[in-house]
Structure formats: structure tokens, C-alpha cells
Amino acid sequence: MTNQTAQTTTTAQRSPDSRASVHIAVVGAGLGGLTLARILRRGGIQVAVYDLDAGPDVRPQGGMLDMHEESGQAALRAAGLYDAFRAQVMSSAEATRVLDKYATVRIDQPDDGDGTRPEIQREALRGLLLESLGEETVHWSMKLTSVHPLDGGRHELSFADGSTVTADLLIGADGAWSRVRSLVSDATPGYSGISFLTTHLRDTDTRHPDAAEVVGQGVMFALSEGKGIIAHREPHSIIEVYVALTAGADWVDCLDLADHNETKKVLLREFEGWGDPLRALIAEADDVFVPRPIYALPVGHRWARVPGVTLLGDAAHLMSPFAGEGANLAMLDAADLAAALLEHGTDTAAGIEAALAAHETAMFPRSAEFAAESADNLALAFEADAPRRFLDLMASHVPQPPADPAAAPVRTLAPDLY
Ligand SMILES: Cc1cc2nc3c(=O)[nH]c(=O)nc-3n(C[C@H](O)[C@H](O)[C@H](O)COP(=O)(O)OP(=O)(O)OC[C@H]3O[C@@H](n4cnc5c(N)ncnc54)[C@H](O)[C@@H]3O)c2cc1C
Question: What predicted TM-score, i.e. pTM, was given to this entire model?
């Protein structure tokens, strides 16, 4: 086993029946997989990353991410990308608002510049990592279809195009529906009972001023009766909206999402009686609604050590977004795993095993804690008398008492509009 440059072919060179051998294979070019590849390469260890997407830009990457000091930011420092990250942080985006269903502002915390969780667009963050890796590391259009264990902790990976790759070390960074996971665990994600539909409003300052006003400069949560409208200000006068509903896993299948106006009508019926500025975030949506049912792995998901393979990020500990930790944890897992591999070395199976054991020993309790928190937060955000306990939760993070609802101004639009 050598710590040599990965001997692999590029996608363009690969023929369907090609066979290659690599030292370290990472499946998944999400934030976790890319962070791992970047830190390992910085430390002189070559890796090959495989992703099912046809390229880096084929799929929208989602909205804003706040990077936490102890996880996402720490990983960016280890990757040597902290300054580049800071240059792309969106100012004022740490502002937080919590509203009730009548659009009454119950908590309003402006971004005073002292926040420790700067916000960046996911696409920009992924772009930084991809750029730092150069073109040869990530192999696109490589959908992993199956994996077979070989001797000595090695694995043979089979891809949808018919090609195979043999790896000395395999890391599953392949997200919620990981293929690599079945090598270590029988667990599968369970549906949380909550479905999100995401959309965007564009040119908000000129075309949707009331919606822009209710959202403010950062993130806005309006929660009540098992439903919610969550919105986030993005650069270029865009607002990303998450419409959240307590619903069966297949509820969204009943919607004809191609019929944008009909989808709006159905969703607006769900938010009958909610304040007009909030309903405007649905009624004025510019983009089609994209369903995102929320799944999670069991809290405390773990496995016994399996030679030559491990998981990180959502593949290991998928949780609801209500702890705001998933991407941060994926990057921290990656940084910790890379540090362990650099410390123990990857030249011998014993070194690899020591590194994987150290990674899992640190990751299991850490992710269990956040998975439990995210499950609790999801439950209290969507309980019948929300936002009562959600306000308490946010107030514990925000150094100001909730505003008096009676005194808070409610901005309304002409009632006939929606
Ligand atoms: C609505 C929503 C909002 C969120 N908001 C936040 C937030 O504010 N803050 C935060 O920290 N986290 C947030 N998260 C969580 C965060 O998005 C994830 O935890 C994070 O993206 C996980 O990163 P990852 O690298 O583990 O997996 P992913 O980002 O899912 O990457 C997995 C990669 O694997 C590839 N892949 C999958 N299967 C295969 C295969 N068979 N073969 C080859 N490639 C494959 C995929 O194409 C993908 O590129 C949110 C999640 C959701 C759903």
C-alpha cells in the first residue's frame, strides 16, 4: 500500500469497462467529501472523489449556510481557505427574526457585526473547495451502484457506467441516501413527518418590497400549528423560501408542481388566516416549488469498525436542518478524519485502521448530541402552539426579550391580493 498519487483515469478517459486502482476513494463531492479531499491533498495525500452529478453546476446547491466557529470555520482553517471564505461572507445576514402566524414580530435580532456565525452561499463555499482541488481530483458522472469488500480492507466500487475502481481506503461522503452506508450499517433514514417546499423570490427590493420587508436582512421564521414559512435573504436581492408542513411522506406527490399557480393556491389554502406579508412569500414566488421531505437517521447511529471503510457527514448522521449543523458537522468530520489520516499515515492498513477508529470515536458522540438537539428543535418548531417554545429557544440564543406582541407593528398588504 503506498501513499502515491491516485492512479485513476479521468471521466473523459474512462471507458465503460475500465478498471482502475486508487489509494483513497471518496464517494460524494458535497461539502464533507470536498473538505476531506482538500485537507488530505494539502497534507500530500492524493485522493479520488467520485460524484453522480454530471458536473459542479448541474444542480442548484441550496441557500445560505452559517459557518460555526468550532466546526465549519475550523475546517476551513485546516483547509487553508478561511480568508477566501471571509471574502465571500454576506454582510448583515446573521440577523434573525421570529414571527407568529399573524406576521407579528416576536424576536428581532439585527446583525450588529459581532456575530460568530457568518453566512455564505452554499454554492460559493463549494466553489472555493472545488477550485482549491483543481480539475483532476473530482470525477463527475460517476454514480456508485455497488461496493464489494476485498481482502485487507480494500473495496471494489462499481459505477453506473460499468466501470470499476479498487480502493485501499473508501470514505462514504455520499449524503442522505448513501450507498456506502450499507457496508457498515443496516440503518436507513426515517421520515420526520415534516416536508419542506423551497422556492425563491427574485429582484425582491423592486418587485417584492413587502416580502423583502417582512424577511429583513437575514433569516425569518414564522411558525404555528405544525406549519411554517421560513425565509432567508440571499445576495442579489433574492429570498429563498421554505414552506414547511406537517404531512405524509407522499403528500407532495399529490401536487402538480409544474402548474405553478395551482401549487400556490394549494399552499395558500394551507396558510389560510396567516398574515398577508407571510402569504406573499408563497403568492409571489418566482421559481417552481421543489419538495424536500425531511428525513433523519436514528439518533445515535453508529456501527462497529469495518476495515478500510468509514462514513462522514449526512451519510453517517443525517439529521433535520433544525440544529443548523449538518454542513458544519460534515466539514468538521472531514477535518478530523483528515487530521487522523495525516497523523497515523495511510501507508499501512494498521495506520488506516487507527485513523478510522479515532475518527469514529470522536464523531459518534458528537453527532448523537446534535442529532438529538435537531430532533427536539424540529418537534418544538412544529407543535400546535408554536412558536411558544421556539421563542424560548431562540431567546436563549438572542440577548433580548421577546417584543410585546400587542405593541409590535404588523405590516399588512391589501387583503384582497392573496
Ligand atoms: C432544507 C435544508 C436546509 C439546511 N440548512 C442547513 C444549514 O443552515 N446549516 C447546516 O450546517 N446544514 C444545513 N443543512 C444540512 C446540510 O445540507 C447537510 O448536512 C450537508 O449538505 C451534508 O453534507 P455531505 O457532504 O455529508 O452530503 P451532501 O451535501 O448531501 O453531498 C453528498 C454528495 O454525494 C453525491 N452522491 C450521492 N449518492 C451518490 C452515489 N451513489 N454515487 C456518487 N455520488 C453520490 C451527491 O451527488 C452529493 O454531491 C440543511 C439541509 C436541508 C435539507
Answer: 0.91
- pLDDT of 22-58, one tens digit each? 799 999 999 999 999 999 999 999 999 999 999 998 8
Give the ligand 1 atom nearest the CA of 174. Answer: 34
226/262 same-domain check: yes
CATH for 280: 3.30.9.10
Q: Is the CB of residue 333 below 6 angstroms from any atom belonging to ligand 1?
A: no
Q: Is 280 in the pocket of ligand 1 (CB under 6 A)?
A: no
Closest by CA position to 330, among listed 345, 317, 321, 343: 317
Ligand 1 atom closest to 176 (CA): 30
HSE, CB side, 13 Å, CA atoms: give it for residue 112.
5
The boundaries of the domain holding residue 227 are 91-116+191-296+380-417
Four-CA torsion 353, 359, 362, 364, nearest 10 degrees: -90
In this structure, are 343 and 396 located in the same domain?
A: no
193/214 Cα distance (integer angstroms) = 27
pLDDT digits 0-9 by tens, 313-348:
999 999 999 888 999 999 999 999 999 999 999 999
Q: 8 C-alpha vs ligand 1 centroid, how far in Å?
A: 25
Amino acid letter for position 266: V
**To test ligand 1's pocket by mutation, which of 53, 94, 174 has the most ligand atoms within 8 angstroms of CB?**
174
CB 144 within 8 A of CB 158: yes
Which atom of ligand 1 is closest in space to residue 59's alpha carbon? Answer: 47
- Centre of ligand 1 to C-alpha 161, Å, is 23
Can you say whether the dihedral through the CA atoms of 166, 168, 174, 177 is positive or negative? positive
Q: CA 87 → CA 91, 218, 330, distances in Å?
A: 10, 18, 22
**Dihedral of CA 120/124/130/131: which sign?**
negative
**Nearest atom of ligand 1 to the alpha carbon of 198:** 1
